[in-house]
TrEMBL record, chains A, B:
Family designation: Belongs to the FAD-binding oxidoreductase/transferase type 4 family.
Pfam families, sorted: FAD-oxidase_C, FAD_binding_4
Residue stretches making up the FAD-binding PCMH-type domain: 36-215
Cofactor(s) required for function per UniProt: FAD
Keywords of the record: FAD, Flavoprotein, Oxidoreductase
Family annotation (PROSITE patterns): FAD_PCMH (PS51387)
Keyword Flavoprotein belongs to the record: yes
Organism: Phytohabitans rumicis
Positions of transmembrane segments: none
Alphabetical list of InterPro entries matching this protein: FAD-bd_oxidored_4_C, FAD-bd_PCMH, FAD-bd_PCMH-like_sf, FAD-bd_PCMH_sub2, FAD-linked_Oxase-like_C, FAD-linked_OxidoTrans_Type4, Oxid_FAD_bind_N, Vanillyl_alc_oxidase_C-sub2
Protein name, per record: FAD-linked oxidase
Record has Manganese as a keyword: no
GO molecular function, one term: FAD binding
C-alpha cells in the first residue's frame, strides 16, 4: 500500500495523488441507485497520457484495479469504486486541444465538460450535438465511455456517431490510437466503436477526436396533450411511420407534469395524462412539418395541441423538460415524511411501435406493486425512463421498487427492446445484459474483455 | 477431401455443394488487382443460418478454412479464395425477411443485392442510403463486411451507420446475435460495429437488421469546372468550412472526363482539369445552398459553373459520374495496343483540408513514375480513387504502377489520411494497414482475431 502510493507519487506531479478520506469518500460512486460501491485506496488525477500510462503500469505491477471516473454523473454504477482500487479521475485531463473548422473536427481530452465543447465549437460555427441530461456537468470521456444519448438523438444520433478516433491506454500501459481524422475510413476493425460504450472496462480513454456538424438551425416547437399515455405512444408511432424527422420528440407523463409544476410552476396542464414536446429544425419547412406532427397527434387522440409562439416560450418548454429529473427527485423526496424518499431511474428502449405497450404495461406494473412510477423520455427513439419512487429507509419499499424495476425491463425485452437505451449497464443491469444478449453474447464479451484486459485490471465487475 | 465433401453434402440440400472446376475458377477472386488468389476445394451455397453453422462446424472439424463470398465485386481481394478452402457463397441467402415501416427497419439475408433492398424499401416510403458504385450488383453482406461507402455518404454516411444488428455464425459454429431493433441502445460492447468492416475474418454474417430513413427528397444538381485539380480541392475545403452539407460532392479529373466522353459522349468539357458535381436535397433551400456552393467554387477559381436545368440533365450528370469506372477501364484497355491494359484502383481518404495537396501530389507521382493516373472520388469526404493505368503484360509497367500506388498511399498517410476510405484492406493493403495503425494497433487486432477465431478458420490472410 505504501509502496503503491510511493510509486504513484513518483510518477505523478504534486497534488495528483489524493488520499484524504473525505475526498476518497467523494469518489466512491456515481448517481446510480441500487448499486454497490467500495472505498478506493487512492484517487489520482493525471494530466497527460504518459501519466495515465504510468498509473496503469503501476496498478498492473501492484495488482490493483483501476476505476476510471469522469464527473460521476452516471446512472448505472459504472464509475463506482471497488475496495482498494485506484480511482483514475479525468478531472485534470481537461483541455480542448484543437478545433478544425475546415474538417469539422475537435480533439479533446476526456475530462472536458460536454457543454464546454458545445460552447467552444459554436465559436467556429460548428455543433457537437449529443446532449445528455447531464450535459452541463458530465465529461466527454464519460459520455464516450457510456455512449451517452440525449434529446437531440432522435434526429442527430448518439455520442458514438460523433467519435472519429480515440487514444486509449491499454492494460499493458501501451497507448493505442484508433480511428482517424477523415470523414470516411475502413482500415481495420472498428476499435473506436469497441471502446465507445465499453464503460471503462477495456482501457482508459485519454484523447477523443470528435466529428462536428454545422451549427444547428433555429427550430419551431409544439406541445400535444393526451388523455392517456397510450395515445401519446400511438402518436409517436404515427409520426415515425409518417416519415417525419422531428429534431426533438420528448414524452412526459402526468406524474412528471405535476412534479415540474410543483418544483417550478410553468403553466403546464397537470390534468393531462401525457405530454409530447416536439420540435422541427427544417428551416422553411419547419412550420409545415410541425403542422403534420400536430395533425398526427390529434388523430391519435390529443385533446390539445399548441405551438410555442416564440423562441422564449420554446426555451421555457425545453427548460420544463430539462427540469423533469430534479423535479421528480423533489417529488420523490417529498413523497415520504421520513425524508428518505428517492428515485430509482430506469432506462429502457423499445421499437417505436411498442411504445404504447411499454407505457401501458408500466402503469400496470406500478399498480401491481403498489409503487409510484413517473415516466419521462425520448419518445422519438422509444427510449423511456420510468422513474420509480422509493422510500430508501423502508426495505419493503425498496423490494417492491426493485421488483417493479425488473418487471419493466422484462416487459421491455418481451417487446423487442433493450435493457438500456442510453445509461449503460454498469453494475445496475449486468444480469439484464446477460439475459438480453444470451450465453453466446456473454461468451463473446468475455473473450474480448480477456483479449484486452486479461487480468481484469480495468473497472472490475462492471458490465460483465 | 472426399470426407469433407461427404460431410458437406449430408448437411446441405441438393445443389448447394459445388465442385465443378469452371465454377470453382469463377469463385477464385474478386475484382481487385495485385492480389493473390487460390483454388477452393468446394463452393457451398447454404440457404439458412443453420446450414451456415453446419458448414462452419464441418470446416472446423476438417481444419479447412472458410472464405465468405458475396458477389465478388470487392476491390481489395478480401473475398479471394485460398487453396483448398471452402468458399461460402451467400448467393442463396437472398431473402428480404421484413420491412417495418413504423420502426424504419429492414431485416435481410446477406446475399440480397443492394439495389434490391433500395427498391423494396422504397415501396414503403423508405430509403436505404448507402450506394457503393457496385450497388446494382454487390450484396448487402459484402457491403456490411467491407463497410461500403458510395456517393450519398457525404451527407448520409456509410453502411455502418445503417446496421442496427447482425446474426453471425462464429468459428465455434455458434450463432451470435448482436445489436437491436430499437433506435437507441447501449447494452454491452458494440459487437455489431466490430463485425461491420471485418471483411469476413471474424464470422459469417447470416442476417442483417438495417435502420432506414424516410425517402429522399428531390435534389438540385450543379457542375463546376476548374483549371486545376488543386483549385477543385480548395473549393471542397471551402464548401466544408462554409458549413454546407451537399447531398453529393463528387470529383472527376481531366483523364476521367476524356475517358467518359470517349466511352459515351455526353457533352462534358474535356479541356477542364477537374470537375466537381454537387447536389443539394434541402428542399426549399436547395437552390440557395447550391448558389452558395457555386459562389465558393468560383472564388476557388472555377472557370465555369452551371446548374442542371431539370431532373433529366441532373440524372445524366449522375450517370456520367457512375460511368467513370467502366469508362476508365476502357480507357486503360485501349491505352496499350497489346490489349493488356488495365486499371489498378486505389482508394485513399484525407482530411478535406488536404484534398488539394493529395491531388497535387498524385500528379507529381504520376509524372515521376511515368504512369497515367486518373483520379475520381467522393470529394466531400476527402475519399479519392487514383486509378493507375497499367500494362499487365509488362512487368516494368506493373512495377512502376505498384510504386506509384505505394507512393500515393504513403502521401495520404503523411497528410493525416487513411489507406482505405471505403474499399477495405483485404489482401491489397495489409502492409499499409499495419503501417497506419502501428504495432500496438496490430497487436490489438490480432488479440481480437484470436479471441473470436483462434484457429484462423475464417478468411485466412486477409486484413492482418
Amino acid at each position: 500500500m505504501a509502496d503503491l502510493l510511493d510509486d504513484l507519487r513518483s510518477a505523478l506531479p504534486d497534488g495528483a495523488v489524493l488520499t484524504d478520506p473525505d475526498l476518497l469518500r467523494g469518489h466512491q460512486r456515481d448517481e446510480a441507485d441500487l448499486c454497490a460501491y467500495g472505498m478506493p485506496a487512492v484517487v489520482v488525477r493525471p494530466r497527460t497520457t504518459e501519466q495515465v500510462a504510468a498509473v496503469v503500469k503501476i496498478a498492473a505491477a501492484h495488482g490493483v484495479p483501476v476505476v476510471p471516473q469522469g464527473a460521476r454523473t452516471g446512472l448505472a454504477g459504472a464509475a463506482n469504486a471497488v475496495d482498494g482500487a485506484i480511482v483514475l479521475s479525468t478531472a485534470a485531463l481537461n483541455r480542448i486541444l484543437e478545433v478544425d473548422a475546415v474538417n469539422r473536427i475537435a480533439v479533446v481530452q476526456p475530462g472536458v465538460i460536454n457543454s464546454a465543447i458545445a460552447a467552444e465549437v459554436a465559436k467556429h460555427g460548428l455543433r457537437y450535438p449529443p446532449d445528455p441530461g447531464s450535459w452541463e456537468s458530465s465529461t466527454i470521456g464519460g459520455n464516450v465511455a457510456t455512449n451517452a444519448g440525449g434529446m437531440c438523438c432522435v434526429k442527430y444520433g448518439v455520442t458514438s456517431e460523433y467519435v472519429l478516433g480515440l487514444e486509449v491506454v491499454l492494460a499493458t500501459g501501451e497507448v493505442l490510437r484508433t480511428g482517424r481524422r477523415t470523414a470516411k475510413g475502413v482500415a481495420g476493425y472498428d476499435l473506436t466503436r469497441l471502446f465507445v460504450g465499453s464503460e471503462g472496462t477495456l482501457g482508459v480513454i485519454t484523447e477523443i477526436t470528435l466529428g462536428l456538424r454545422p451549427a444547428a438551425e433555429a427550430s419551431l416547437t409544439m406541445v400535444a396533450l393526451f388523455p392517456s399515455t397510450a395515445a401519446a405512444g400511438a402518436a409517436v408511432a404515427a409520426i415515425s411511420a409518417g416519415g417525419l424527422s422531428p429534431s426533438l420528440l420528448e414524452f412526459l407523463d402526468q406524474t412528471h407534469l405535476i412534479a415540474i409544476e410543483t418544483h417550478r410552476p410553468m403553466g403546464l396542464r397537470t390534468d393531462a395524462k401525457a405530454l409530447l414536446l416536439a420540435a422541427s429544425d427544417t428551416g422553411p419547412r419547419a412550420a409545415a412539418d410541425l403542422a403534420r406532427i400536430a395533425a398526427l397527434c390529434e388523430e391519435a387522440g390529443a385533446d390539445e395541441v399548441y405551438a410555442a409562439t416564440d423562441a422564449v416560450e420554446a426555451a421555457a418548454l425545453l427548460q420544463a423538460r430539462r427540469l423533469a429529473h430534479p423535479a421528480m427527485e423533489q417529488y420523490a423526496a417529498e413523497s415520504f415524511p421520513t425524508g428518505n424518499g428517492g428515485l430509482i431511474i430506469d432506462d429502457v428502449a423499445v421499437p417505436r411501435s411498442a411504445l404504447a405497450a411499454l407505457l401501458d404495461g408500466t402503469e400496470k406494473i406500478a399498480a401491481e406493486h403498489g409503487v409510484a412510477i413517473g415516466v419521462v423520455g425520448h419518445a422519438g427513439d422509444g427510449n423511456m425512463h420510468p422513474n420509480i419512487v422509493v422510500d430508501r429507509a423502508d426495505p419493503a419499499s425498496v423490494a417492491s421498487c426493485r421488483r417493479a424495476f425488473d418487471d419493466i425491463v422484462s416487459l421491455t425485452l418481451s417487446l423487442g427492446g433493450t435493457c438500456t437505451g442510453e445509461h449503460g449497464v454498469g453494475l445496475l443491469k449486468r444480469e439484464w445484459l446477460a439475459r438480453e444478449i444470451g450465453p453466446v453474447g456473454v461468451r463473446v464479451h468475455q473473450a474480448i474483455k480477456a483479449a484486452l484486459d486479461p487480468d481484469t485490471l480495468f473497472n472490475p465487475g462492471k458490465v460483465l
